[in-house]
Amino acid sequence: MTEMKKNEFRPNDYVVYPAHGVGQIVSIEKQEIAGLQLELFVISFEKDKMTLRVPTNKATEVGMRSLSSPDVVSKAMTTLKGKAKVKRAMWSRRAQEYEQKINSGDLIAIAEVVRDLHRNDDQREQSYSERQLYEAALERLTREVAAVSGGDEVAAAKQVDDVLVSRAAA
Q1: Cα 54 from Cα 43, distance rounded (Å)
Q2: Rg (CA), the chain
Q3: Separation of alpha carbons 18 and 63, rounded Å
Q4: Which of 47, 69, 73, 114 has the largest count of CB atoms under 10 Å?
Q5: Which H, E and C letters describe 113-135, residue by residue?
Q6: Which long-range contacts (CB under 8 A, 24 or more apart) does 26-34 make?
Q7: If you ran DSSP here, which 8-state letter would residue 64 be given?
Q8: Dist CA 164 CA 149 (whole Å)
Q9: Contact 144, 106 (CB under 8 A)
Q10: Taking CA 119 as the corner, what is the angle to CA 114 and CA 124, rounded to the nearest 5 degrees?
């Protein structure tokens, strides 16, 4: 049973790491850390020029997961089409919730943030922090949509944008 868990992810697999989004497992290496032999996934986040090492036995515990299924991607797209749900709470509180959703690694939760923070040209300006959260969520969503559909980020960005624009027109 534990053996199966360990080999759930393989080199070249694309995975989602909650705090960083989509990365690719480059290799699995063994390292001695504080006298312990550890097996680590080496994950590359190409766009962020970052490499992360995650102990293989902690991967699922930290929320690392495989890419979403096309089914989950279409649910995320449906979520984008929905009406923005903005709570009346103070911005700092809402910002915290948005941040948690983005870092949850849950594609549907990320789509909710994009939906709730998306602005049409005729709507009021976004504050700097709103814009930052919106862009972070949009980038996570787009990267995963791209990875699921074969890696074209430009096409994925257009797909997401088309949904947001069509929602605005409705």
Answers
A1: 8
A2: 18
A3: 6
A4: 114
A5: HHHHHCCCCCCCCCCHHHHHHHH
A6: 26/51, 28/56, 29/53
A7: -
A8: 19
A9: no
A10: 140
Provide the pairing of β-strand 65-66 with 36-45.
unpaired
Residues of the chain short of pLDDT 50, as ranges, are 1-6
- Pick the closest to residue 18 from 134, 135, 149, 136 (CA basis): 136
Tokens at 165, concatenated: 């624009």
Alpha helices (H) in the chain, listed in sequence order? 2-6, 70-81, 91-104, 107-117, 128-149, 153-169
DSSP assignment of 34-58 equals TTEEEEEEEEEEGGGTEEEEEEGGG
Tokens of 48: 């962020």
What pLDDT sits at residue 8?
81
Closest CA to 86 of 107, 114, 125, 121: 114
pTM of the model: 0.87
- CA distance readout (Å), 17 to 33, 45, 55, 85, 126: 22, 10, 13, 26, 28
- Tokens 């949904």 map to which residue? 163
Rounded CA-CA distance 129/147 in Å is 27
